[in-house]
Amino acid sequence: MRIAIVTVLAAAVLAPTAGSMTAPAPFIKLKSQSFGNILATRGHKALYTWNTEKADLKIHCTGACAQAWPPLLAASRTAVPKHVAGVTGTFGVIRRPDGRLQVTRNRLPVYSYANEGRDQVLCNNVDGWFVVRL
């Protein structure tokens, strides 16, 4: 399903540290006709959470799962603002089993879907995967 993009809002840090430039968050807010406001990568790929990880807030999507559902990674903890203007939720990171840092929203890891193109949502409510609605 194609997302009809009405608005794209770049997420920005609310309170940058003294002397630093405001760095963009590694995600954006998209408004679609089908799903309302959703979270997406800066490249316009929808972001998802997986119900399997809601029970214990741990990473379970690794190996082949992570190839199909690439995690949204962050270079450092400070690269992900806790709160961003115009986007609901609390953001952070979780350490993956391979040591990399993955972006979280409300403590849940977020992923894109490898077989989706720009501005698509193909897997909402499929096998426990849900697009992140804002």
Largest sheet: 4 strands, antiparallel
Task: Note the beta-strand portion.
Answer: 25-35%
Shape: globular
The number of helical segments is 1
User: How would you classify the helix and strand content by structural class?
Assistant: mainly beta
Rounded to an integer in angstroms, the radius of gyration calculated over CA atoms is: 14 Å
Distance between the termini: 19 Å
Helix content: under 10%
Number of strands: 9
Output the helix-strand order.
EEEEHEEEEE
Report low-confidence residues grouped into runs of 5 or more. Answer: 9-21
- What's the rounded overall pLDDT mean? 87
Task: Give an account of the 3D structure.
4% of the residues lie in helices and 32% in strands. It is globular, with a radius of gyration of 14 Å. Strand 7 and strand 8 form a beta hairpin. It has one helix and nine strands; from the N terminus they run E-E-E-E-H-E-E-E-E-E. Mean pLDDT is 87; it is low at 9-21. It has 134 residues and is mostly beta strands. Strands 5, 6, 7 and 8 form a four-stranded antiparallel β-sheet that branches. A three-stranded antiparallel β-sheet has the order 1-2-3, with no helix packed on it. A two-stranded antiparallel ribbon has the order 4-9. It has one helix at 64-68; strands at residues 5-12, 24-32, 36-41, 48-50, 73-74, 91-95, 101-105, 108-109, 129-131.
